[in-house]
Amino acid sequence: ASTLGESASAKGRYFGTAVAANHLGEAPYAATLNTEFNSVTPENEMKWDALEASRGSFTYGTADRIVSHAQSRGMKVRGHTLVWHSQLPGWVGSLGAGDLRTAMNNHITQVMRHYQGKIHSWDVVNEAFQDGSSGARRSSPFQDKLGNGFIEEAFRTARAADPAAKLCYNDYNTDGVNAKSNAVYAMVKDFKQRGVPIDCVGFQSHFNSQSPVPADYRQNLQRFADLGVDVQITELDIEGSGAAQASSYANVVQACLAVTRCTGITVWGVTDKYSWRASGTPLLFDGDYNKKPAYASTLAALGGG
Ligand code: G3I
């Protein structure tokens, strides 16, 4: 196969990218997206501030444009993200506990029902754990007012809203075995033991020289898979250039392919031009949509070429 999506598909995986609705009208952006990828994640358009900026009033238009673009071309869609401390409208943070619980469950239910049947996996809860050695939860309106049980409640609400969608917990700096991934691992293990609905864990995989692809990346993905959940690489980007970047991308693809339950890879953007890393070059296509060495190594690692 000659594209990322087709090559991944031949291995039983999807190969996706984050997409921003405001770039879909740029011809080379759309052409690269349509040719190479078979799954999309809206980069910002499904976040709480985009969908429910004021309480109870839902605005789906921009996210819907991405979903229809994907659906009309046979691409899958990942939903990102229902409950997150960031890009949260101010009104959510000023609610008391009872109202906050109602608002969280209503947001999950409304959004998942709107997209029912169109989203293969949802990031139900994003980035709920702290960095560092504590393994503790991160402070957020949900954590601070609802306590540890908010994650479990969000997943139960999500299952009821759309029983067919895969429900994921998603985080960063959990890509290797470390205190933070150990804390997520313990939560997933507990959920599986108690029958709390969870189907997948997303590993964002934002790598740079300070935080390179961990040597135990595959081992970490495998230990989560062994708990009985799928694993997905959800926001992959790797700072750098040339052969070093190419080799890191190949390592990530090989790790996913080595884990049967690693169901797909999403890179966090089509082109370096629009990466969230403002001056960085962490993606597979350069600012002029030329294929980088990392593209070739990724395609080869997927068995394409
Ligand atoms: O929409 C406004 C626009 O109206 C305004 O003119 C412009 C001026 O700055 O800002 C626009 O909003 C920006 C938004 O992206 C859309 O472009 C925000 O300022 C900016 O903060 C926001 O950044 C996003 C970031 O999440 C916010 O947390 C990035 O695009 C997005 O790539 C990034 O994605 C996150 C994942 O969701 C979770 N994991 C980490 C990942 C990288 O940070």
Structural class: alpha/beta
Shape: globular
Please state how the strands of the largest beta sheet are arranged side by side: 1-2-3-4-5-6-8-9
DSSP strand (E) fraction?
A: 15-25%
Question: Which ligands appear in the coordinates?
Answer: ligand G3I
Would you list the SSEs in sequence order as H and E?
HEHEHHEHHEHHEHEEHEHEH
Helix proportion range:
40-55%
Radius of gyration, taken over Cα atoms and rounded to an integer in Å: 18 Å
Q: Report the uncertain regions.
A: none
Largest sheet entry: 8 strands, parallel, barrel
Helical stretch tally: 12
Average per-residue pLDDT, rounded, comes to 98
Distance between the ends? 6 Å
- Give the strand tally: 9
Tell me what you see in this structure.
Its EC number is 3.2.1.8. The chain has 305 residues and is an alpha/beta fold. Helix content is 41%, strand content 17%. The protein has an 8-stranded parallel β-barrel with strand order 1-2-3-4-5-6-8-9, surrounded by 6 helices. 45% of the residues are buried. The model has no long low-confidence stretch (mean pLDDT 98). The structure holds ligand G3I. Ligand G3I is lined by residues 43-44, 86-87, 172, 204, 235, 276.
Topology:
Blueprint: H1 4-10, E1 14-19, H2 27-36, E2 39-42, H3 48-51, H4 61-72, E3 76-83, H5 90-93, H6 97-114, E4 121-126, H7 141-146, H8 149-161, E5 166-171, H9 179-194, E6 200-203, E7 206-207, H10 217-225, E8 230-238, H11 242-258, E9 262-267, H12 293-301
Parallel strand pairs: 1-2, 1-9, 2-3, 3-4, 4-5, 5-6, 6-8, 7-8, 8-9
Helix pairs in contact: 6-8, 10-11, 11-12
Bound molecules: ligand G3I.
Ligand G3I binds next to loops.
